[in-house]
Amino acid sequence: MFVVNAMKEFVEDPRNHRYPPYEGTYSFRKTISEWFLKRFNVSLDPDKEVMALIGSKEGIAHIPFSFVDEGDYTLVPNPSYPVYNVATILAGGTPYFMPINEENNFLPEFEKIPVEILEKTKILFLNYPNNPTGAVANLEFFEKAVYYAKKYDFLICHDMAYSEMTYDNYVSPSLLQIDGAKEVSVEFHSLSKMFNMTGWRVGFVVGSSEAIKALGIIKTNVDSGLFVAIQQASEVALRDDSNFIAKMNNIYVRRRDLLVNGLKSLGSDIKPPKGSFYLWVKTPKDFDASSFTERLILETNIVVTPGSGYGSEGNKYVRFAITVSEDRIKEAIERMKSKSIQF
């Protein structure tokens, strides 16, 4: 509510009703750099290494146009957020899918990628905490990613929209904490998840000054920047010292545990995820993602996302979200029990 109250004040300022700077106001970029230093102990130059986005999705969708041409590859986790794949295709490139599954802890195995693909790769997409799996990564994994990026001269684009949605004493690290990572990496962050500002469309990208400059060239030709009042309200959010995020995560933990225990009572072997607000749940053995999603809709009026929408590796999974109240989660479990659904 404190962000909404701030926004009411800023939206009434007539000075804000004009075109904003393409890269974001200096004040917003400086606030981002201060938050990043406090959160990750990484210093950023607000003039060259920080840029405002109209939601992190916008930046992720545009960055392939800065680096990818016909004949180039991007490395895309399978399953993953569909924008990585679609943006690559729209830019004229070819996605190379890296399977992530329980066997590899939902972390791509770079050593299994053919050298001829790596030599033609322009972008590696990563996303931890992960959508849709809820998986998390450590600094050792990011060190390996940076090694490959330097060896094969490609850019790492780390989608960190769920950086603050973490549980069970896990704290997500930034890729940029790795020595030399800033030379070959950018990281996308979103206030949508951090402060429940989904519809506001506000995020930012940090990291390689060269990559941010290239993305800025695309953006200046396709958008006109982020409404200044939203940037000002976002500064208020990033400077918040009320433990808003910790309180919100406590709510998510209760919802997560309630849903995990409920699904286990129906036979699922789901493990509590340490990040994001999703549960990646195996379908019953006689169902694939689409058929089980259809059954839930027709028999229980419960809507889940079929895992196949995130890639072929998701064909035996569905994604549950813990973005509804505990009462709704309890009701969902009872509806599945009433229809004898077993995992």
UniProtKB/TrEMBL annotation:
<comment type="similarity">
    <text>Belongs to the class-I pyridoxal-phosphate-dependent aminotransferase family.</text>
</comment>
<dbReference type="Pfam" id="PF00155">
    <property type="entry name" value="Aminotran_1_2"/>
</dbReference>
<dbReference type="InterPro" id="IPR015421">
    <property type="entry name" value="PyrdxlP-dep_Trfase_major"/>
</dbReference>
<keyword id="KW-0808">Transferase</keyword>
<dbReference type="GO" id="GO:0008483">
    <property type="term" value="F:transaminase activity"/>
</dbReference>
<protein>
    <recommendedName>
        <fullName>Aminotransferase</fullName>
        <ecNumber>2.6.1.-</ecNumber>
    </recommendedName>
</protein>
<dbReference type="GO" id="GO:0030170">
    <property type="term" value="F:pyridoxal phosphate binding"/>
</dbReference>
<dbReference type="InterPro" id="IPR015422">
    <property type="entry name" value="PyrdxlP-dep_Trfase_small"/>
</dbReference>
<dbReference type="InterPro" id="IPR050881">
    <property type="entry name" value="LL-DAP_aminotransferase"/>
</dbReference>
<keyword id="KW-0032">Aminotransferase</keyword>
<dbReference type="InterPro" id="IPR015424">
    <property type="entry name" value="PyrdxlP-dep_Trfase"/>
</dbReference>
<dbReference type="InterPro" id="IPR004839">
    <property type="entry name" value="Aminotransferase_I/II_large"/>
</dbReference>
<feature type="domain" description="Aminotransferase class I/classII large">
    <location>
        <begin position="3"/>
        <end position="335"/>
    </location>
</feature>
<dbReference type="InterPro" id="IPR004838">
    <property type="entry name" value="NHTrfase_class1_PyrdxlP-BS"/>
</dbReference>
